[in-house]
Specification:
With 1035 residues, this protein is an alpha+beta fold. An 8-stranded mixed β-sheet has the order 1-2-4-3-5-6-7-8, sandwiched between helices. A 5-stranded antiparallel β-sheet has the order 9-14-13-17-11, with no helix packed on it. Helix 19 packs parallel to helix 21 and helix 21 packs across helix 23. GO terms for molecular function: phosphatidylinositol deacylase activity. This is GPI inositol-deacylase. Involved in inositol deacylation of GPI-anchored proteins which plays important roles in the quality control and ER-associated degradation of GPI-anchored proteins.
C-alpha cells in the first residue's frame, strides 16, 4: 500500500527544490567563490624568474631500437646540443639524463642543458686547474615519451622506468664505442648517469632503482623538480597507489636499520626542489622527502630558499627559471669528477656541495665548513691592544678606509666557562662576495694565538689583552679565511621591493661559540684598497642568545584570536630570531607588519625578514619590509610522518635583521589572515570535494530507496536531498567529526611514544594521516561542515546540469519524433511505438558480450564505463519522454530512479576518466599494444547489466522483505567510505558503487520471474523482455 503522504510528492517536478536546499546551495556558492577568490588573489608569492634563451639541437638515437627495449616504437632517446657552442654529436663528457613529467615534452631539457653548455664554455673549458680536477662538459640526454600521462596510470609509470633503465644501459655503451665517443684517453668509462627529473619524472627516476632491469650503481645522483614524492597527486587509479607504495616501501626499507651494510641506496643522493605556493599543479608539500630518505642522503628545499634564486616557481617555470637553472648547473659542475667511473665525487662530498649551493647556510644543524677543513687562506696578524675590541662592543663602520693600510678589528671569542648564556657572532656588510666567496675590501678571519711571551699562549689559551702593552714581543695570530662560510642575503634598502631583484647581495656571517671554540679571535680586516673611502658599511657583534632569540609560547586558538605582538627595543641585536611554535600548519596564513621609527642619521639598511621552517628547508625573504604575507609548507594534510628527528611542530621562525645603530625600536605584529587561508584549501583538499559530494549522493539514494520500499514512490533527487539535510547528512558529519577527534588523539599518543626514537628503527604507520581530513590537528574539524555545505551545493548544481542535459536531448528527440510522425501520416501509416524498444534481447546480449571480450583483451573497463554513462543519459531521455507522454506512478518512479542512478554515475565518472584519457592518448600516438591492466570484467559488469536493464525500461521492484535493509547498508557504506578514505583511496569508490550496482541487478533478476529456460528461449528466438515491463507511448 502506498502511504498517502507521498501521493503528491510522486508527481513533484524534478526541478523543484525546498528553501533549505536552495539557501544551502547559495551559501555553498558564496563559500566557493570566496575560496576561489582567495586562491587567485590572496597570499600570492611574487613571480621573479628570469627569462632564458637557447638554440637547441636534438639528435635522436636510432640505434636504440627493439633489440634494446620493447618500447622502441613508442618512445625515443635524444642527445641535446647547444647551437653555436657544441654541435658535435659524439659523447665526450659526463652523462646526464633528463626525465620529463606528466604529459611533458623531451624538449623541456633545453633550458638546463643550454645553461650547462654555456657555463662549461665560458667558465671551465679554459681553466686547466679545474680540468685537472676532473671537470668535463655534460652530455645531456632526454627521453621522448610522446607526452605520456604518468600521474594517472601506474602501469605507464612502470613502463617508462623500464625503458629508461634500458636507455641508461645504451647510454653507457656509447662511451665504450670509439665511433661514438671523444673522451680523453686514460679516463675510466662512465658507470653511472646523473638524473634530473621533472614532476612525475622524479618518481619514474626513483622507480628505476626498484625494477629487475636496473643495473646496480648506474644511478647515484637524482635531482627532482616539483616531484610528488610523498604521495600520489591523485588516487583515482589503483595501480598508481600500489606503485607508489612499492617504491616508497623499497626506499624506506633500504635506509632502515635492518638493511645495514646491504643498503642498495647507500651511495644514492636524492635532492628534491619544490616551487612553493606558485605551483598550482602539484602541492609542494608532496615534494617532501622527510618520510623517505635520511638527511645523509637527501633533503627537500624550496626555490625561495636557494641563494640568489630567492623566488618561488610554478610547475613549469621551475624548468626554465634562469636563477634556478644557474644554481643547478653550478652544483652539477661541483659534484662531477671524470677521473672516477662513477663520474661524481663521494656521497658525503656531494651532500656537502648540495647543502652549500641550495641552502641558506643559516640552518641550525648545518655545520660550518671552515673549522673542519684546510684554510682557504693563511694570514699572520699582530695582536695589538688597540686592535682588540672590548667584550660586548659592537663594531659599526659607516664607510671603509681609503688609500690606507689594512686595519684589523679583533673580537675575542668568549670562553665556554665564561658564558652565562650561549652567544653567537654576527656580521653584515653591504659588500657582495664573488663566486669564490671573497669580499673585495673586507676579510673575515678565524684566528689562533701562535707566539707570545705570556706562558699560556702556546697552549692555545685565550690571551689577556690587558697586559699586552707590557709584553716586549707582540704576540702573533695565525688566521684562516672564513670566506667559505659567507652567507648571501638579498639587499634591503629603501629602493628594494623583491629579494630576487638583488644583483649585489649583502654578505653575512653567523657563528655560534661552539662552532668557533677552537679559535681565540675573530678578525675583521678592512683592506683599504680603494683610493677613496667607500660607502661600504659593516656591523659586527657578539650577543647573547637570550637577547637574539624570542620564543612566543601560545596555543593556536589564542594565536588565531589575538595574534602576536612584540617590540624590539632600541638596544636590540642586529639579528633577532622570533619563534612561534604554534604556527606550523600549511592551511593557515598570516599578515606580518613591521613599524620602524625614522633613523636620525639614515639607516644603513631597511628591515630584512627571513621566514623559515626546519623541515623541509623552506625560507622566504622579505626586503624593505613593512607588510608581508606569511604562508608555509609545514604540517600538511595526508602527509606521511617524518623519518627524521626534526619535528614539524617546531613551528615558524622569523629572522629579523635591522639597523641597531639607529637607536629606535621596532614594532612587529603577526595576525591571522583568514581570507588568505581559504585559498590554501584548494591545493590540499581539491580531491576531497568530489569525495564528500559522493558521500551526500549516496545518502540521497539511500533515502530514495527507503521511501520507495515503504511507499512505492521513488521521490525526486532534490526531495530526498531535502530530507537528508534534516537527518542523515548532519548525523554523518557529526559522526565524522567525532571520529576525527578520536583519530587525532590516537595519533598524538603515538607521536609522544615515538618521540626521540630512531624513526628508521620503528614500525611506523605511514598511512595514519590517510583518514578524513588527513590533519593531526583537531582545530580543523570545522572543515567538515564546510565541506558538507560545499558538497550539497555541488549535488544540486550537478543535478540541475544533468536535468538540463536530459531536457536538451528530450527536446531534440521530441522534434525528431514529430517530424517522423508527420511523414508517417503523409504516407498513411500510423504506429504505436514502444519508447524503450531498441533491439531484441539477443542483439543486446551479443553487443554486451562483444564489449566484455574487448574489455578482457584490448580496452580498459573505464571505456565501458564511459559507454554506460552515455547509454544512461539516453535512458533518462527516454524515461522523461515516457513520463511526459503517459504520466503515471510507474513512469514517474522510473524517471526519478533512472535520473538518480545517472547522477551517481556522474560522480563516479571522475575516478574512471583519467585512465580512459591515458588509453585515448595511447591510441593517438599509435601505441596499439593492449593495456596490461584494468581488464577485470567484474569491475564493470554490474554497471553494464544495470544500465542495459534500465535502457530496456525495467523498473526495479520494491523489496518488502528484510533484504531491503541491504540496499540501505550498501549506500551507507559508500557514504562512510567516501568520507573516511575518499581522498586517499578514491579508486575504491568505483568498486563500492559497482557492488551496489550488482545488488540492484540481483534485485531485478530475482523478482523478474525469468527462469533459465525462458532466458535461453529469448536469446535463441530473439524475443524481447516481457511487454509488461515496458512503457507504451500514447497513440
Amino acid at each position: 500500500m502506498e502511504q498517502p503522504g507521498w501521493r503528491k510528492a510522486r508527481l513533484r517536478s524534478p526541478w523543484k527544490a525546498s528553501l533549505l536546499v536552495l539557501s544551502t546551495t547559495a551559501l555553498s556558492i558564496l563559500i566557493l567563490l570566496g575560496i576561489v577568490n582567495s586562491f587567485l588573489t590572496r597570499q600570492r608569492d611574487p613571480v621573479g624568474c628570469g627569462m632564458v634563451w637557447m638554440r637547441p639541437i636534438y639528435a635522436k638515437y636510432e640505434g636504440f631500437d627493439s633489440e634494446w627495449t620493447r618500447f622502441a616504437s613508442k618512445y625515443g632517446l635524444y642527445l641535446y646540443r647547444e647551437g653555436g657552442i657544441n654541435e658535435d654529436f659524439q659523447v665526450k663528457g659526463i652523462p646526464v639524463l633528463y626525465i620529463t613529467g606528466n604529459a611533458g615534452s623531451y624538449k623541456q631539457a633545453r633550458s638546463i642543458a643550454a645553461e650547462a653548455a654555456s657555463y662549461w664554455a665560458n667558465h671551465i673549458s679554459h681553466d686547466p686547474e679545474r680540468h685537472n680536477k676532473g671537470l668535463r662538459d655534460l652530455d645531456f640526454f632526454t627521453a621522448d615519451f610522446n607526452e605520456d600521462i604518468t600521474a594517472f596510470h601506474g602501469q605507464t609509470l612502470l613502463d617508462q622506468a623500464e625503458y629508461l633503465n634500458n636507455a641508461i644501459a645504451y647510454i653507457l655503451s656509447l662511451y665504450h664505442d670509439p665511433q661514438n665517443t671523444r673522451r680523453e684517453p686514460g679516463q675510466p668509462d662512465p658507470a653511472s648517469v646523473i638524473i634530473i627529473g621533472h614532476s612525475m619524472g622524479g618518481i619514474v627516476a626513483r622507480t628505476m632503482l626498484t625494477l629487475p632491469n636496473y643495473q646496480a650503481g648506474s644511478i647515484n645522483t637524482i635531482i627532482t623538480l616539483s616531484s610528488p614524492h610523498a604521495r600520489a597527486p591523485v588516487s583515482f587509479d589503483e595501480d598508481i597507489i600500489a606503485t607508489y607504495k612499492k617504491i616508497n616501501d623499497y626506499w624506506r626499507k633500504s635506509y632502515s636499520a635492518e638493511a645495514g651494510n646491504d643498503n642498495p641506496l647507500s651511495e644514492v643522493t636524492l635532492i628534491s626542489l619544490a616551487g612553493g605556493s606558485l605551483d598550482t599543479v602539484v602541492p609542494s608539500d608532496y615534494a617532501s622527502l622527510a618520510s623517505l630518505v635520511p638527511e645523509s642522503n637527501g633533503f627537500t628545499v624550496f626555490t625561495s630558499t636557494m641563494p640568489r634564486v630567492w623566488t618561488g616557481s610554478d610547475h613549469l617555470s621551475i624548468l626554465w627559471c634562469d636563477q634556478l637553472r644557474k644554481a643547478i648547473v653550478r652544483a652539477l659542475f661541483q659534484i662531477i669528477d671524470a677521473r672516477k667511473s662513477t663520474q661524481t665525487i663521494a656521497r658525503e662530498e656531494r651532500m656537502g656541495v648540495f647543502k652549500k649551493q641550495f641552502l641558506t647556510g643559516l640552518e641550525h644543524h648545518i655545520g660550518k665548513v671552515s673549522p673542519s677543513r684546510d684554510p682557504v687562506a693563511n694570514m699572520t696578524l699582530s695582536l695589538k691592544t688597540e686592535d682588540v675590541l672590548p667584550p660586548g662592543h659592537r663594531l659599526w663602520l659607516r664607510e671603509t678606509l681609503g688609500n690606507k693600510l689594512e686595519k684589523p678589528y679583533l673580537f675575542p671569542i668568549p670562553e665556554a666557562d665564561e658564558l652565562s648564556s650561549k652567544k653567537k657572532f654576527t656580521l653584515m656588510t653591504n659588500q657582495s662576495p664573488d663566486d669564490t666567496g671573497m669580499i673585495q675590501n673586507l676579510d673575515v678571519l678565524l684566528c689562533s694565538v701562535v707566539s707570545s711571551d705570556i706562558g699560556n699562549s702556546a697552549t692555545g689559551m685565550k690571551q689577556d689583552t690587558d697586559s699586552d702593552h707590557d709584553t716586549p714581543e707582540t704576540p702573533k695570530l695565525t688566521c684562516r679565511s672564513a670566506t667559505s662560510d659567507v652567507i648571501q642575503l638579498p639587499t634591503s634598502t629603501h629602493s628594494d621591493i623583491y629579494p630576487f631583484t638583488t644583483t649585489n647581495p649583502f654578505s653575512y656571517f653567523q657563528y655560534s661559540c661552539d662552532e668557533i671554540s677552537k679559535y681565540q679571535y675573530i678578525a675583521i680586516v678592512d683592506k683599504g684598497h680603494s683610493p677613496m673611502p667607500t660607502q661600504t658599511w659593516i656591523i659586527a657583534e657578539f650577543n647573547d642568545d637570550n637577547q637574539s632569540e624570542i620564543v612566543h609560547q601560545m596555543g593556536l586558538l589564542e594565536l588565531l584570536f589575538h595574534g602576536v605582538y612584540f617590540n624590539l627595543p632600541a638596544d636590540r641585536p642586529m639579528m633577532v630570531d622570533v619563534k612561534v611554535p604554534a604556527i606550523f600548519s600549511s592551511l593557515l596564513t598570516y599578515k606580518l607588519q613591521i613599524e620602524a621609527q625614522s633613523c636620525a642619521h639614515g639607516a644603513l639598511f631597511k628591515p630584512l625578514v627571513r621566514q623559515y621552517i626546519q623541515e623541509p628547508y623552506e625560507s622566504k625573504y622579505f626586503v624593505n619590509v613593512k607588510e608581508a604575507d606569511i604562508s608555509l609548507h609545514g604540517l600538511s594534510p595526508y602527509m606521511p610522518p617524518s623519518l627524521r628527528s626534526v619535528s614539524l611542530t617546531n613551528g615558524l621562525s622569523l629572522q629579523v635583521w635591522s639597523d641597531p645603530t639607529c637607536g629606535t625600536s621596532l614594532e612587529i605584529s603577526l595576525d591571522p589572515d583568514i581570507k588568505g587561508s581559504l585559498g590554501k584549501f584548494v591545493m590540499r583538499y581539491r580531491t576531497m570535494y568530489p569525495a564528500i559530494t559522493l558521500m551526500v549522493v549516496a545518502l540521497v539514494l539511500r533515502r530514495q530507496f527507503i521511501i520507495y520500499n515503504e511507499s512505492g514512490v521513488f521521490i525526486t533527487f532534490l526531495e530526498s536531498l531535502n530530507l537528508c539535510m534534516k537527518t542523515s547528512v548532519p548525523i554523518l558529519l557529526v559522526l565524522l567529526i567525532v571520529l576525527s577527534f578520536l583519530i587525532t588523539g590516537i595519533g598524538s599518543s603515538t607521536n609522544l611514544v615515538s618521540q626521540g626514537s630512531n624513526a628508521t628503527e620503528l614500525a611506523m604507520n605511514f598511512t595514519k594521516n590517510d583518514l578524513l581530513l588527513g590533519s593531526p590537528d583537531t582545530i580543523f574539524w570545522l572543515l567538515l561542515p564546510i565541506a558538507g555545505i560545499l558538497a550539497i551545493g555541488a549535488c544540486v548544481l550537478v543535478n540541475y546540469a544533468a536535468l538540463s542535459l536530459v531536457y536538451i536531448f528530450y527536446s531534440l528527440n521530441s522534434t525528431a519524433s514529430i517530424l517522423t510522425r508527420n511523414l508517417q501520416r503523409q504516407h498513411g501509416r500510423h504506429t504505436t511505438e514502444n519508447v524503450f524498444s531498441s533491439g531484441t534481447t539477443r542483439r543486446r546480449l551479443i553487443i554486451t558480450l562483444i564489449l566484455f571480450i574487448l574489455i578482457s583483451t584490448a580496452v580498459p573497463y573505464q571505456f565501458a564505463y564511459m559507454v554506460a554513462c552515455i547509454v544512461q543519459l539516453i535512458t533518462c531521455t527516454k524515461a522523461l519522454q515516457a513520463s511526459e507522454d503517459a504520466s503515471s506512478n510507474f513512469t514517474n518512479n522510473f524517471y526519478n530512479y533512472s535520473h538518480s542512478i545517472f547522477v551517481l554515475m556522474l560522480w563516479v565518472l571522475p575516478i574512471n576518466l583519467p585512465v580512459f584519457v591515458v588509453w585515448i592518448h595511447n591510441l593517438a600516438v599509435h601505441w596499439l599494444t593492449p593495456f596490461s591492466s584494468h581488464h577485470n570484467i567484474l569491475s564493470i559488469m554490474p554497471f553494464v547489466v544495470l544500465v542495459e536493464s534500465l535502457n530496456s525500461g525495467i523498473m526495479i521492484p520494491r523489496v518488502m522483505t528484510r533484504f531491503r535493509h541491504i540496499t540501505g547498508i550498501l549506500f551507507f557504506t559508500l557514504a562512510i567510505y567516501a568520507g573516511l578514505y575518499g581522498v586517499s583511496y578514491a579508486y575504491l569508490l568505483h568498486d563500492i558503487a559497482n557492488v551496489i550496482a550488482a545488488w540492484l541487478v540481483i534485485i531485478q533478476i530475482s523478482s523478474s520471474g525469468l527462469s533459465i529456460d525462458q532466458l535461453s528461449k529469448m536469446v535463441l528466438r530473439g524475443d524481447n523482455l516481457p511487454a509488461a515491463q515496458h512503457v507504451k507511448k500514447r497513440p
